[in-house]
Amino acid sequence: MSIYCSIKLTEDTQFDFYSEYPIKNKLDEISVIFKEKPNEVCIFIDTIQEAVTTIYRGLSKCVTNQMTLNSTLDIGRVGEKWNVWTNDLSDEVGEDEEDVYQEYWIWSSRDFQTWVYQKDGKSYIELSPSYRWHYVEPIENEEVIPFEAFMKGYKPTVIKITSEQLTILLDSLSKIKHDLGIS
Length: 183
Description:
By secondary structure, the chain is of the alpha+beta class. The chain contains four helices and eight strands. The model has no long low-confidence stretch (mean pLDDT 91).
């Protein structure tokens, strides 16, 4: 795998877009790796178009103050509350149950959820561990951790994004969109 591009978030954190093959068009598959020195985790695998479009849209809404957390959510607790809500869901979401998390959701993998939101005029990216067995049956002989044990060790990563960083991020994503013809 090789890095298609890196998008620096802070001095110690970045998103690396990896691809097994050279990226030639918007439908090529990439893996988004979140690096926080010295750790790195895969947080999303899909086409580069999907990766870039979703985070670009979320961050653009931060510029226009359209990603403000609702009053029931707090900074660094979106993923935690989502995990609890998802664990408590029946097989089907009832008509009266609203997924208040959907508007902040950017990327997901079996192990992580990525959220973008604002609170008090400041923008944040939250990476939250995701309970592996919300939607997937255990693989044969896989050790399943009880949900309660998972939540005891739960620790999200929250990155505060300044307005300057937001502009730089959007410029970097715009360049990728332009280079690959992503609308």
